[in-house]
Amino acid sequence: MPLDIEVKGDPASIRAIAGWLGTASASVDDSGAKVRRTRGESETGWLGSAGDGFRTVATRVAAKVAELATDLGGTRDALNAHAGDLDAVKAEMARARGIASAAGLATTETMIFEPGPAPAAPTPLPTDRPATAGEQQAHAAASQTQAAHAVRRDRRGRPGQGNRLGRDTTQVSN
Amino acid sequence: MNGFDVDRAVLEAVASTLHGAGADLESMADPPPAPEVGACTAAVSAVLALLTESIGGVVEGLGVVGGAVADSNVIYGEIDANARTAFDGLSLG
Prior knowledge:
The complex is a heterodimer of chains A (about 170) and B (about 90).
Chain A: E1 3-4, H1 11-45, E2 46-47, H2 49-102, E3 111-112, H3 133-157, H4 170-173
Antiparallel strand pairs in A: 1-3
Helix pairs in contact in A: 1-2
Chain B: E1 5-6, H1 8-25, H2 41-88
Helix pairs in contact in B: 1-2
């Protein structure tokens, strides 16, 4: 069964939105500062019950605005972290593809394919007569192919032995 | 305190600041294009829509509060002007 190595998601577009959220968070925070400032200004320039009412509302609005700025900043941080995770997983999948390709497996951007069937065993050379030149050539070629396949199989499937990239390929082969 | 004490210039400045704060945020109240987040794209889009809706709520709220302050300022002016009218109409014979 082929191995699906596609990792969906575009870290650059995620970081772009995270940047937008950071700007929005700063703007919202700035608005909250303005609300708090007007509340302070009103304490000396607007005395009486209406002024008290305004300050009650301004306090509530400032708290809600601060909460929203925090939510925007938290979402920005979460998206940045997710973009970093996606980069890491994509890099691991690219490494897996490299390992599989080095071991002789066919790969694409999104798949690592199975090794396929082992090559046929060489046809035994005749024992009742001398082998022809063609038979000897075919036998040698088939033996060579089979030996090369065995080397690739061993490289792919030997648990814990690693490979030439220095990684255990057990999980990749499965 | 008994009664009230209002500096109408302060009320005007407060209303102006609140309206300006709302206007500064208006451009942020439209959701940005959704990022490509694979299986999470719809969920992230929903979160962005919620957040931008909240920003829109802040813009609206700042406008409403700023408007209420401006209205209060007008009312204070009218109260003072009406009180003055009472004196202007007095005939002291």
